[in-house]
Design brief:
globular; mainly alpha
Length: 315
């Protein structure tokens, strides 16, 4: 709690790097966790309604955990103004419900390799949007090169024969890109809300509201989640906790830092996802492509966060 009250620490580059990387590690761990969750809950690959219900349960629990912690820490959880609750409701609709609906539909219509790469475009969208929204976060050639290097790293870690097939489907890759754009816009909107509303409340309410909508929509179109066992329940709880921790810390970083300096770390998520998936599948994580990908993503992040810029692009 002392750390959370120290605003200056969230502006420290080393702390930002540490926390942002940790958030991406948590989100990366969701890749194998979700796959195992589908198996444990007997959700078939084409059963999108049940996947929405599964995601809904995860985010409802994540939101409740944060709101309970906020209540226990003395925050006025129920005294949020009508205007603020409307803003948070809007955030929950887009950042959680709409974003994940598009994401699941897109993933269902393309390969895991392509969806992982397309989803990493969130870093590009965030850097570009920040250029037009914030005067102190302008797009530079250095940022463009950094994002490009990071994107190449994501492509390398996901490299397979499937990448040689350059087909592009709107209902597949296109929808995943839309999901990435929605997440970028909603993250910037969350940054705006956290200037006047407590971060824990913003995150808790948005996750709960979005999760509830996903559950209702998924159930309405025939989705069901059964087979609750000790193992499957613990996995669901873990996924909820990783969401509550990652989103809270990410929103805190966005509140005190430039969007581009935080969002660039999104390239780590698919890298960690690939590595952790390999670990849980018993594969060799020390492949040359994983090492090269990690080095490129680190280089891209360093370039975006470097103080000096080589060429500034003006509108």
């Amino acid at each position: 709690m002392i750390i959370l009250k120290n605003k200056n620490i969230f502006k420290s580059k080393k702390f930002v790097a540490l926390i942002a990387t940790f958030c991406c590690l948590l989100w990366g761990s969701a890749y194998p966790a979700i796959k195992n969750g589908y198996i444990l809950f007997n959700i078939s690959p084409e059963d999108i309604p049940s996947k929405l219900v599964f995601a809904g349960y995860r985010f409802v629990i994540a939101g409740l955990v944060l709101l309970v912690i906020a209540l226990l820490s003395g925050k006025k959880v129920l005294s949020i103004s009508k205007k603020n609750i409307q803003n948070v409701f809007l955030l929950g609709i887009f950042q959680t419900a709409v974003h994940y609906m598009f994401f699941y539909v897109g993933v269902a219509n393309t390969s895991g390799v392509k969806s992982s790469i397309m989803n990493s475009t969130v870093a590009f969208f965030s850097v570009i949007l920040a250029h037009y929204i914030y005067k102190n976060d302008k797009l530079t050639m250095q940022k463009i090169i950094g994002c490009t290097i990071g994107f190449i790293g994501v492509m390398i870690v996901n490299f397979s024969a499937d990448l040689l097939n350059f087909s592009f489907s709107f209902k597949g890759e296109g929808v995943v890109v839309i999901a990435a754009f929605i997440f970028s816009v909603s993250a910037i909107y969350a940054k705006k809300l956290t200037q006047s509303i407590d971060v824990m409340l913003v995150t808790g309410y948005s996750l709960f509201i979005g999760g509830a909508l996903l559950t209702l929509i998924g159930t309405a179109i025939g989705g069901r989640v059964y087979h609750f066992t000790m193992i499957s329940s613990l996995l669901l709880i873990y996924m909820a906790l990783l969401s509550s921790v990652a989103f809270s810390l990410w929103n805190l970083l966005l509140k005190y830092n430039k969007v581009s300096h935080v969002s660039i770390y999104n390239f780590f998520t698919p890298i960690f996802g690939a590595i952790l998936s390999a670990i849980f599948l018993g594969e060799n994580i020390f492949e040359i492509k994983n090492i090269i990908a990690l080095m490129l993503v680190c280089a891209g992040i360093w370039m975006v966060n470097k103080e000096k810029t080589y060429l500034k692009i003006v509108r």
